[in-house]
Amino acid sequence: MKETGDGQGTDRFRAWMSHTPARLDVGRAGTRPPTKDMLRFRLDHAAAVDAVYGEVKPETLDEFGLFSADTQYRDKEHYLKYPGSGRLLTEESARMLADRCVSAPQVQIVVSDGLSGRAIDDNLADVLPALRDALAVNGLAEGTAFFVRGGRVGVMDDIGRLLKPEALVLLIGERPGLVTAASMSAYMCYRPGPGRRDSDRMVISNIHPGGTPPVEAGAHIGTLLRKMIEQQASGVKLDV
Amino acid sequence: MEHWLTSVGIDIGTSTTKWILSRLKLTLVSDGSALPRYEIADRILAHVSPIYPTPLSGDEAIDVPAVVALLDEGYAGAGIVAEQVQTGAVLITGETATKRNAEQLAHGLARHAGPFVAAAAGADLEALLAGKGSGAQRRSLETDGIVANVDIGGGTANAVYFRRGQPVATATFHVGGRLVRLERSGRVRYAAPALKEWSAGSGDVPPLPPEGSEASFDALQRVCRAMSDTLLRCVCGEAAALAGSKALFVGQPAAHLPCPAEIWISGGVGALMEGPPPASAAETARFGDIGPLLAAGLAELAGTFAVPVRAAEQSARATVIGAGTQTAALSGATLYCSPGVLPLRNVPVVVCEWPPEAADAGTDAGLLAHAAAEAVARGCALYGREQGGDPPFALGLRAPGYVSYRRLSSIADALIAAYASAKLQESILLLVCSNDMAKSLGNRLFGKLGEPWRRKLVCLDQLVPQEGDYLDVGEPLREDVVPVIVKSLLFGG
Fold first, then answer.
1. Which residues take part in binding adenosylcob(III)alamin (chain A) (predicted)?
2. Does the N-terminal peptide bond of residue A21 adopt cis geometry, omega within 30 degrees of 0?
3. CA of A205: which chain B residue's CA is closest?
4. What pLDDT sits at residue B82?
């Protein structure tokens, strides 16, 4: 059984509803939501939890030839309790970067699972090639892209300290929500390094097929990186 | 962050000519973590001209030099420099000179209308612009029912129906002040053929006084009342009225029209509704036609009609305000545009509908290639290089659902193959995507195209032009703002 309003202004309410994926006007069965909507809600919640505990598939990384570095996160439980552990690379990984990556590139691309491995599985194949097209159009040279397991946004500064890129973009899985568990963000910073603040960084968020279109996000990130390098600034100082 | 656009609207109608200058405020409405999006957030009327009688040479053609002189004088008086005008529209509306020298007029006015302006008219576009300029569209956002705007000028009555701000239907009628021209004695100088046909076709309609005869005030009043009554009943979609008034329709008669919750009347006749009704044939003929009496007929009927009828907020200048403030649209802000290619004017649109995505990449690429080849071949047949400009046509791309990078790449290949085999490698590639994908598609094409073709690429998005529409694409105002005018019909099609 589904109850709705009295029909007054229903057209207008429907028009408002079309602007949000929120669970509005689902009706009720007795004192609780209808069974279908209740199950949908629990399914979405379970998917969000799974995304946090899931891992990025090896095939995803192989497709783009990304090698893996680790932060000091140790395991998922520790990672969730101590966010700071996801901002620093292990000593072994730091040595690996020095060994395998081009030093001081114009643009450094880093991919990380963050809070949703699925975000990377679902969106990397659309965002990364579009971003590389955009780098070519904007005349930007890329360093050696790699993957970071157990990363937080602040890991950009540790990588910046080690590789000294002009600009760095981190493609990272977002905290899952009830609308989607596979949403990616792209954080960008000009000359990242220890001491950088949130106001120095910029972000394009909500990247997934139902949000910010992944291919167009990749294209736009390229434009932003060019502007960052042109203006030698990022975050609130950048004139977009 | 905001940016201002200067826009002009010029309306050359059957009876009157007027123009306005407006300032449109572009505002970045997206938040910092989303892709940038601009909207026209405010429209300010900066200058409103007086209403002039339309200069005609004879009854047949617009007096182009006289119109140009009128605008020269108006611009000088208002301190406007033509070079400041960035967008807008010249509309040749109603029956004006049967639009015969419309193209000549458009050339004559190109200087006043700035480097980028639409010289467009078509009954549907006129109706839509009048409904936006009159305030009826805004009204429909405040109410649940349909709001119809009927713009009644000298030659035609253009009706548009809005539901929640969206146009849902249009209709155009041979109903207007100047369709019967009078001398002060009541002598009928001219009666439009459509009215004669309508009057002769039905026993319920009072006879139209023949041309050359002296009509009594009473006879004129009966005709105007009948015209008002028939028009409003047709606007309400009354089946009997629609069936009995086929002669009054401009173009294809409508079989159905929605019943509005409110009817707004704009145009010159709408403006006259608020004045005192004429009491004699001489008072009726003060503009040399039946306009004032038609307005009186509508005003009288408005009091008793089943659907509320009112004069619009903006009546006499509804169309010109719509033309000056509502024609410019903006492309999605993530776009691709080779330097130096824009502006482009009067580019016809050919629609390319992509098929639903096939599971297998090879099959999908084949389907896309076929769709692109078919659309480009149709474009070449309709707008071939001999008569066409550069580009001969724009491709309107419509993709159902999500576009992945794999699909984007296949789309780029399909477009390049189709344009190459149609020998269009020398022409500008103008693509208008319905989905938000212009920048990524442009980037992909840039990577795949050879020189010099890759320097002649324009990719816009979040616009959905229809097959046969014409586009004016303006110069970018910033790297990411490109104004576009989508013209639904040019010179009446």
1. 153, 174
2. no
3. B33
4. 79
Range of the domain at B436: 331-487
For position B95, what pLDDT does the model report?
Answer: 64
Considering only residues 188 to 217 of chain A, which have any Cβ-Cβ distance to chain B shorter than 8 Å?
A: 202-206, 209, 212-217
Helix/strand/coil percentages in chain A, nearest 5: 45, 15, 40
Model confidence at A1, in pLDDT bands (50, 70, 90)?
Answer: very low
Neighboring chain B residues of A129 at a CB cutoff of 8 Å: 405, 409
Structural domain ending residue among the three candidates B87, B120, B153: B120
* Residue that finishes a domain, picked among B85, B100, B120: B120
User: From the list B33, B402, B446, which residue is nearest A209 (CB)?
Assistant: B402
Backbone angles phi, psi at B466, to 5 degrees: -95, 160
Instruction: Indicate if B146 and B282 belong to the same structural domain.
Output: yes
Give the tens place of pLDDT for each residue, A203-225: 999 999 999 999 999 999 999 99
Query: Cβ contacts of residue B38 below 8 Å, gap of 6+?
Result: B3, B26, B27, B28, B29, B330, B333, B480, B481
Which is more confidently placed, B9 or A164? A164
B338 and B315 share one domain:
no
DSSP bridge pairs for B20: B9, B48
- Write out chain A residues lying below 8 Å of B442, CB-based: 137, 219
Q: Are residues B100 and B64 in the same domain?
A: yes
A215/B408 Cβ within 8 A: yes
Containing A78, the helix (H) or strand (E) segment is helix A76-81
CA distance B321 to chain A (A): 28
Which residues of B fall within a CB distance of 8 Å from A125? 404-406
Residues 6+ apart with CB under 8 A from B437: A213, A215, A216, B399, B403, B408, B461
Closest residue by Cα to residue B40 from B3, B74, B68: B3
Which residues in chain A touch residue B403, judged by CB atoms under 8 angstroms apart? 213, 215
Radius of gyration of chain A (CA): 20
B75 and B129 together in one domain = no
- Is B65 in the same domain as B156? no
Q: Which residue of B has its CA nearest to A203?
A: B33
Structural domains in chain B (count): 3
Task: Judge whether A3 is annotated as a binding position.
Answer: no
CB contact under 8 A, B35 and A218: no
Encoded tokens for B157? 């009555």
Closest CA to B380 of B421, B436, B336, B440: B421
Number of CB atoms found within 10 A of residue A91's CB: 9
Could you tell me which chain A residue has the CA closest to the CA of B435?
A: A213
Q: Å from A63 to nearest chain B CA?
A: 13
Judge: A203–B403 Cβ closer than 8 Å, yes or no: no
Tell me if B440 and A137 make a contact (CB, 8 A cut-off). Answer: no
Residue A24 lies in a domain: no
CATH code where residue B307 lies: 3.30.420
Q: Mind telling me how many Å the CA of B444 is from chain A's nearest CA? A: 6
Residue A153 labelled as part of a binding site: yes
Q: Which residue ranges of chain B lie beneath pLDDT 50?
A: 97, 489-493
Domain count, chain A: 1
Q: Do A125 and B36 touch (CB under 8 A)?
A: no
Q: Count the Cβ atoms, other than its own, within 10 Å of residue B452.
A: 10
